[in-house]
Every structure is written in structure tokens, then in C-alpha cells.
Amino acid sequence: MRLRFVFLLILLFAGGIIWRIVQLQNIEGEKWRKASSLRYVSERTIEAVRGNIYADDGSLLATSLPKYRLGFDPLVSLSDKNRRIFDDGIEELCKKLSNFYGDKDWKDYYSMINLARHEKDRYILLNNSLIDFQDVKMMKKWPIFKEGKYKGGVVFEKVNVRYNPFGKMGFRTIGYKKDKEKVGIENSFDSQLAGVPGKGIFEKIGQGSFRPIDGGEEAIPIPGLDIHTTINVNIQDVAESSLLRALKRSGADKGCVVVMEVATGEIKAMTNLTRMRDTSNYAETYNHAVLGLTDPGSVFKLASMVALMEEWNLSNEELVETGDGKMKIGDKILEDSKTTGYGTITAQSVFEHSSNVGTAKLMLKYFGKGNEKKYYKKLHDFHLDQRLNFQLRPDAIPRISPPKKGDITGLPWNSIGYGMLLTPLQMLTFYNAIANDGKWIQPIIVKETRVADKVEDDFKLKQEVDENPICSEETLKKVRKMLEGVVERGTASNIKNDLYKIAGKTGTSQKLINGKYRKGMYYTSFIGYFPADAPKYSCVVAIDNPRGVKKEALFASDASAPVFKEIADKIYACDIQMHKLLAKDANGGVKLTSQKQIAHTSDIKAINEEFGIERKPSNEGWSVMQAENGKVHYEEHSNPKNKVPDLRGMSLRDALYVLENKGFKVSYSGFGKVKSQSIPPGVFAAKNRTIGLVLN
Asked: Fewer C-beta within 10 Å: the chain N or C terminus?
């Protein structure tokens, strides 16, 4: 009886198991298959290829390059046919992996792969290092891998990596996305660059990793838009190298440079360098030009002068008594940099020598006694108290606050650039308006977004432009004279040059530390434009806390202004449109030089034909041109076969052509036409001799 009972229990238990198996397979099977699929196979997002960032000439500033990680499916080799492929090639494959990556012995790779086979792992990452497409092509020829994905088990996992062809140039401006830090164009235009992600089927391979598999519905990602900037790579390179040299020379804490095209507001260069802690190295870690709010110092005096001229018709010749360079206002003492003072000088000289006392006296004379609001209204009209809404986000909000009632020090101190906070870019935009015939224009650094050649968004159409000039033509003439005077005779006379004119203003302000202005610690800047008589570029150079050997080296004239000139010189040298090719007389005609000019007859004839000049030289070869009484005369210029020719009056190009064809070597100095030659004309000279030319 007891045995029957036990047998019945066993029979019931076995029947329950059979029923449960049937239930799992047929009734609940679909439910658990879906659950398993969700656990090990899932639909995941596929990142789109990020758009490119271009310079103004189409040069690539940032792009995405495909890189790959090497994975392997060890279970592919378990079939009889594939096992033979695996056994024959695994040792050589592991040796190639060891030689290529150099991170472990080939036996370690062998053990890793065999362990994965034993544990039935469907996927292992052989190495986490990224490889390029050329490496992929090479590896596809290796043992086992050459059989492909389904027989050889090789998996190349594609990863898009951001690449900057110009390295660290404009690093903070072009920007990047790293972990939680996002800056520059990469950040501000992230939604346009990112594109639309796709979807694909991925298999879970353990430890939160997935690999793509074939099958299922897929959505192809849409690549991001291309960003076309206003940055000029040549100007950017010049700005960065010039600023870096100046910062290292002075041991400054940080600095920035922005170069803007006057007529368009396009930023051609923006560089920001900060000294790394406890080193002499500098890196782009913060955008001082856009976010660096600080007391602007004496560069703000331009705004004060424009306000005085617009509201009160101030004359450049108005006399101001600056005395011994000291002025007490309330409980504060205002001082000029010249300890003995400037005495009685004109408003023009006040600006040229950056007299704090002179500026404050003019301000109190006209905007004092209840007229303070008019001054701050003018600053508003100049856009100085308004956000630029610049394309790089975030951009700083300027802080200009009228003094409280009873504060007699606020107005004079504000007028010389203290007690307010502005960025270098905001000040540059104001100076650019002066250079741009009074027309204020919002700076931009991105012109448009594109898909191939199709423009998606034209930001020039959205650029803010004030149709009302910030000041009258009469004021423009007066303040431009002041700005040019700063370089001709004033605080920036050390950057004057004979090739082209620079107009601008120096600024040296004491640094505010813990609520107190500290002597010997300065924020220096120079803002201006060039060429002064036909402005094409405006530029700001700011250097924070230079540590010069002498006191003068701490000021803007020695710290910032020379950097401006170095940048301007190099831009001028490369921009032939700014060069003066011909001087015109008062009647608009071309001045004909009385100096003899030598040119090849074919060149003269081509030029005369282009301009419709009937009179032409009758001889062949070289001709001498000379103007007399408004007419050009020609005569043949001899070029004897075995003698040194007369090169005086020739261009360097023509002189080189003649001499090198005769077998001479040439050295030269100077610019322009040949003024003298080391071997006199008509002398017999052997080939390979060197002839020195002096140009003038």
C-alpha cells in the first residue's frame, strides 16, 4: 500500500513537470521568448556622423573620422569546417595581434580567445585601442580574419572620432565636447552639427557592452549640417603666435586677441590663452574675449569723447587745465601716469596722452551738474550696456550702472573706464563702429550652415545692424583724428610705421582684487583699426597682469600695442588689396614719375593696349620709359651680351630675369626699384659672380 502511494506521488510529480514543459513551450513560450529577446537583443540608437566646421576659405577646422575597435566572435569557429580554419591560424593570428598592439604576449591573446570559446562567449573585445581604416584593410588579410565576419568571426566596431586638422589652433573658439564640458562652436551649434541619430539592432555581450547584429528594421542616421565660419586660418595663426610670444615675454597671466573685418563684422581670428598653474606654458582654457568681464580702462575714453562731441559739440582744440596731474574728487585722488602732469593741453592731447585728469574735467564740465543721465543715455545709444547676443554661448552681459544720488566720483571714474564691467569683444564692436563710418554691426563667427552646397541657414540675414549711425560725420572726423594722434604722437607712438596708418587707443587699468585696486598689477589693452585712412580690419589685444622688467613694460604701450602692430603688419603684408599701388593727384589723374623706368617692350605694349594708349615703343627687347611734361617717351635700353647691364630703374623681378639668364647670382636688399648695383654697367664679368642690388 505504501509503495503504491509513493509511486502515485512520483507519477503525479512527473506529470506536473511534463505539463509545465508543455505550458512553457506552447502557452507561455512567446511571452518568455520576447522577454529573453529584450534582455539580450535590443534596439539601440546609432549616432549620426557629426557635421564639419570650415574656415572662410573652405579649409577644414573640425571633422569626424571613422575609427574602429577590434572585436571577435570565438563561437563562429565551432563548426567542423570553421574549426579547421581556427586551428590552422590561431597561433599566427595571436602573434600578429601581439606585434601590432604591443600590449601583451601572443600567448595571452591565445588564452583569452580560448577562454571565451570555453565559456561560450559570443563576442570579446580583443583590444580597446582605436585603429584607422588602413589598419582594418591590413587586418582583413590576417589568418582567420581573412575569412570575414561569418567564417572568421572578426568584428570591426565603427566609432566616429572628432579631428582638428590644425591641431590646437583656435581650440577654445572651434570648441569641443568632453564629458560635461562643452564649449565654442561645437557647443553653440551642437544641434545643427549633431544630425539625426538612427536605430539598429544590438546584442548584449556583457558588462553593459553591445555589438551590432544584422536583421530587424533599421533607421539610417542623417549626418549633421556643415558649419561655415568666418575664421581665416592665416590670421588666426598670426594672432595666436603673436599673442603667445608676448605672454611668454612678459610672464602675463592671460590674454586674448580678436580680429574683425570692419565692414562685415566677421571675426577673422579669436584666440584666448591662459598660463597654466606653476608653469610657463599657455593653453586655451577660457574664452576671455567673450566672457572676460573687467574694467576696460582708458580704451573706454573713446566712448566718453564721442559722447562729449555728440551732446556738447566738444572741439579737439578745447583747452583743459590738467595742472600737476592730480585731482581730488570727493574722498578720492585721480592721477595721471605722468607724475609732473601735462599742464594746459587741448582735448586732442588729453586723448593722445590718455590724461585721466583731463578727461574727468571735461566730463564734469559738461555732464556734471545734473546732466549725468545724458551721458549714460549716450552709452546706451552706443550699445555698450547691451548684450551682443554673440553666436558663441554663453556671452557676457555688460554692467554699466549710473552712480547713485550724491555719488560725485562715479561719473569721472566711469568716464575713464573704471567701475564698470565689459568684455574685449564688446569694446571692439564699439571701435569697429567708428571705423565703419559710425555703423554699428553685430559681430558674427558663423556665416551659414550647409548640406553639401545647399545653404540651410544664412546667419548674415539675421545679423543685427543699427541703421542709425552711433554718431555724426563731424564727430567721426574728430574722434578719428584723436585715434590717429594716439599712434602718431601719443601713448602708442612706438607702433607708428611708414607703410600704413594705425588708429587706436591704449588702455591700462589697475586690477581689482578683493575689492581694492592694486598698483603694479594691470590689465592692458590696445584697440584700433587699420589702415586708418581706409579701415579694413579692427582688432583688440588684451594682456592681463604683465610682469615686465621695468615699470613701463607693465603698461599697454609696451605690453599690448606691439602685439597689435605685429598682427597688423603680417595681415598688411599678405593682403595686397590694402597696398597703395598708385598715388593720384588732386585732379584724380595718375602722377607720372620723372624717374626712368625700365621694362620689357612686350610688357609695355600689353599694358598700353589694355588702357588704350596709342603711343608704344618701336624697338624690341628692353625699353626705358620717362615722363616729361605729362607725356611718356621711350628709348631702347641696351643689354650687351658679354657685359653687366644697367639695372637701375628695373623692378626686382626684371633684374633677376636679366641677370640669371646671363649666369649671374644675385643678392638684394630693400624694396621697390633698383637704385644701385655692386658691379657697374658695361663691365665684363664672368658667370657665377654675385651682383648685389640695392632697392629703393
From this structure: N
C-alpha angle 406-355-538 in degrees, rounded to nearest 5: 105
Angle, helices 301-312 vs 473-488, to 10°: value is: 140
**β-bridge mates for residue 584, sequence order:** 590
Q: What is the pLDDT of residue 5?
A: 63
Q: Report if residue 481 sits inside a domain.
A: yes
How far apart CA 227 and CA 232 sit, in angstroms, is 14
DSSP E strands in 468-558: the ranges are 503-513, 516-530, 537-544
Residue 9 belongs to some domain of the structure: no
Query: Cell for 338?
Result: 605722468
Q: Are strands 690-695 and 665-669 parallel, antiparallel or unpaired?
A: parallel
Alpha-carbon dihedral angle through residues 500, 501, 505, 506, given to the nearest 10 degrees? 40
- Does 435 have pLDDT greater than 60? yes
Q: Which residue has the cell 574602429?
A: 68
Give the chain's domain count: 4
Query: What distance in Å separates the CA atoms of residue 660 and residue 687, rounded to the nearest whole number?
Result: 10
Please list, residue by residue across 531-559, b when 16 or more beta carbons sit within 10 angstroms of its beta carbon and e when fewer do. Answer: bbeebbbbbbbbbbbbebeeeeebbbbbb
Residues 601 and 530 in one domain: no
Q: DSSP states of 5-31 as a string?
A: HHHHHHHHHHHHHHHHHHIIIIISHHH
CATH number of the domain that residue 202 is part of: 3.90.1310.10
For residue 492, which of 484, 532, 571 has the smallest C-alpha distance? 484
Domain region containing 691: 597-695
Q: Which of 42-56, 231-245, 630-644 has the lowest mean pLDDT?
A: 630-644
Degrees to nearest 5, angle at CA 567 with 438 and 393: 65
Cβ contacts of 252 within 8 Å, gap of 6 or more: 246, 275, 543, 544, 545, 546, 547, 559
Co-location of 418 and 546 in the same domain: yes
524/522 Cα distance (integer angstroms): 6
Of 117, 136, 158, the residue at which a domain comes to its end is: 158
Cβ atoms 304, 415 nearer than 8 A:
yes
- Percent of the chain at pLDDT > 70 equals 82
Show the cell assigned to 114. Answer: 580560448
Query: Cβ neighbours of residue 191 under 8 Å, at least 6 residues apart?
Result: none
CATH number of the domain enclosing 617? 3.30.10.20
From residue 345, give the alpha-carbon distance in Å to each of 342, 348, 353, 414, 448: 7, 8, 10, 22, 50
* 261 and 383 both lie in a single domain: yes
| Ranges 8-22, 266-280, 624-638, most confident | 266-280
Looking at the structure, tell me whether residues 249 and 296 fall in a common domain: yes
For residues 155 and 126, the answer to whether their CB atoms sit within 8 Å is: no
Residues 6+ apart with CB under 8 A from 690: 664, 665, 666, 667, 678
Taking only the tens place, the pLDDT of each residue in 565-619 is 999 999 998 887 776 533 333 344 444 444 567 777 777 777 777 666 766 776 7
Report which of residues 51 and 38 the model is more confident about: 51
**Whole-number Å distance between alpha carbons of 625 and 633:** 6
54-102 tens-digit pLDDT: 999 999 999 998 899 999 988 876 667 778 888 889 999 999 999 999 9
Q: Is residue 8 part of a domain?
A: no
**Residues in contact with 379: Cβ distance below 8 Å, sequence separation at least 6, in sequence order:** 303, 307, 385, 400
Calpha distance 662→677 (Å, rounded): 15
End-to-end CA distance of the chain: 132
Q: How far apart are CA 360 and CA 452, in angstroms?
A: 56
> In the Cβ-directed half-sphere of 192, how many Cα atoms lie within 13 Å?
20
The C-alpha R_g of the chain, in whole angstroms, comes to 37
DSSP line for 289-320? HHH--B--GGGGHHHHHHHHHHHH---TT-EE
